[in-house]
Specification:
Number of helices: 15
Radius of gyration: 20 Å
Distance between the termini: 39 Å
Structural class: alpha/beta
Largest sheet: 6 strands, parallel
Strand order of the largest sheet: 1-9-6-4-2-3
Number of strands: 9
Strand content: 5-15%
Order of helices and strands: EHEHHEHEHEEEEEHHHHHHHHHH
């Protein structure tokens, strides 16, 4: 067994009604909150619910609600300006992965100055960031427990990644009641994204017994509940299982990283504005088929986590997992290929160059060249 390290340096609260714990947590961080969210949650009144809860303990709140899907460098700059103008002393990230990515980036830039592009890569964040509470409203990204912020730089058509364990929020509140209004399409794409986090971390050459345990529990929870949750988002038990699975998957990939699916999906989103979860889901069966040559028995375990009917070693071949993933995508309404999502082949060369810059390529179970990436994009088209 190789050496490994891990820590979970935050307080995590999971369960129905746990949003009510926000005021007590906020009192530990300051007297003025800066809520980073999106327009949809603002219209739904969920942002106002947080404002009202904070007001009960005399904590003032200002709001930045301009976060978009695949958030940009410009959005981070606007949010940083708003944070400084507000005089806030801590941040509440409310929403899916996009508000959390922005909140982490704001936490860095507001504390240390400059532009978020200056912190791209690993080891660039000098210390603790502005205190952050993360409240996910989707079961997908796991951003409430991850050490990453992914921001789109339109000047390069590139999704840059800031990696530092200092980005991990101080607190995470996971309340399944916040998931009940998600559209089926969002529940599906986010749920598949969480599954892929667990799957890629599990197969990563950087996986450890700790990350594997997190991955396996995540796949068990998500595999058993994703169909029920997408079918009925009012199913609180399924919603809580999805949230918890996403949480464990986020912890797993923070310590084991991911693989080719994420390395290749970021350019898809950057060039064609395809949602992250959809891009991942389309690429997943293609990459699983490519990686099956390197399988050492894990494909059978993954299959049994996501299949409604178990398989046995004497009957299983790795291609069965590829077929099962395609079947799952189809049942959830995920597009079957990149062209259905508006992707065209003219950008594949540039996209492959960007994908090869990802550290995830290095831990993919099968070694991968730029020409391999181009070929995989073509297969997915």
């Amino acid at each position: 067994m190789k050496n490994f390290t891990f820590s979970v340096p935050q307080d995590i609260i999971v369960g129905k009604g746990s949003l009510k714990k926000l005021p007590k947590i906020a009192q530990k961080l300051g007297t003025h909150a800066y809520i980073i969210s999106g327009p949809h949650l603002t219209k739904m009144g969920i942002v106002q619910t947080c404002i009202d809860a904070l007001a009960e303990v005399d904590i003032k709140a200002d709001v930045f609600s301009e976060t978009e899907g695949n958030p940009s460098v410009e959005t981070v700059e606007k949010a940083v300006k708003g944070f400084h103008n507000s005089g806030a002393d801590f941040i509440v990230a409310l929403g899916g992965g996009s508000p959390m990515d922005v909140a982490k980036a704001v936490g860095v830039v507001a504390k240390y100055g400059g532009c978020i592009t200056e912190y791209e890569g690993a080891g660039k964040v000098p210390g603790d960031i502005v205190p952050l509470v993360a409240i996910p409203t989707t079961a997908g990204t796991g951003s409430e427990v991850t050490a990453f912020s992914v921001i789109t730089d339109h000047s390069r058509n590139y999704k840059l990644t800031v990696f530092s364990y200092k980005l991990i929020p101080s607190y995470a509140i996971l309340d399944p009641e916040l998931l009940t209004t998600a559209p089926a399409s969002v529940a599906a794409s986010c749920g598949i994204d969480a599954l892929i986090h667990a799957l890629e971390a599990y197969l990563s050459t950087d996986a450890s017994p700790f990350s594997e345990a997190m991955s396996e529990k995540a796949m068990e929870l998500i595999g058993k509940n994703i169909r029920q949750f997408v079918a009925n988002r009012q199913n609180i038990e399924a919603a809580e299982a999805m949230l918890t699975g996403s949480l464990f998957a986020g912890i797993a990939f923070s310590w084991a990283r991911l693989g080719n699916v994420h390395a290749m999906s970021h350019p898809v989103s950057a060039y064609f504005n395809v949602s992250h979860g959809v891009a991942n889901a389309i690429l997943l069966p293609i990459i699983c088929d490519y990686n099956k040559l390197a399988d050492q028995g894990k494909y059978l375990k993954i299959y049994n986590y996501i299949s409604e009917v178990p398989a046995y070693p004497e009957d299983f071949v790795p291609s069965m997992l590829v077929d099962k993933i395609r079947e799952l995508n189809d049942s959830l309404g995920i597009p079957s290929c990149l062209s259905e999502a508006g992707v065209t082949a003219d950008k594949f060369e540039a996209m492959a160059e960007d994908a090869m810059k990802s550290g995830n390529i290095a831990v993919n179970p099968r070694s991968t060249s730029k020409n391999d990436i181009i070929s995989l994009y073509r297969q997915a088209l």
